[in-house]
Amino acid sequence: MVKYVCFMCEKRISEEMMGKRVRCPYCGSKILFKGRSKPTTVKAV
Ligand SMILES: [Zn+2]
Question: Which of 16, 19, 27, 30 would bridge with 9, disulfide CB 3.0–4.6 Å?
């Protein structure tokens, strides 16, 4: 199953949750990226 990660709130969103509208059901952001096992995050050293 393809899961997306919200760019704004970083929650994982399944396709079922989005339906046909590509946007975050939590915060309404339209900026999502496809998350694999781990979302790409940058941690400060
Ligand atoms: Zn969100």
Answer: 27
Exposed (0-12), middle (13-18) or buried (19+): which is 20, by Cβ within 10 Å?
exposed
Span from the CA of 14 to the centroid of ligand 1 (angstroms): 12
How far is it, in rounded angstroms, from Cα 45 to Cα 12? 25
Encode the chain (45 residues) as per-residue pLDDT tens digits. Answer: 668 889 999 999 888 887 787 789 999 999 998 876 555 566 777
| Residue boundaries of the structural domains of the chain | 3-35
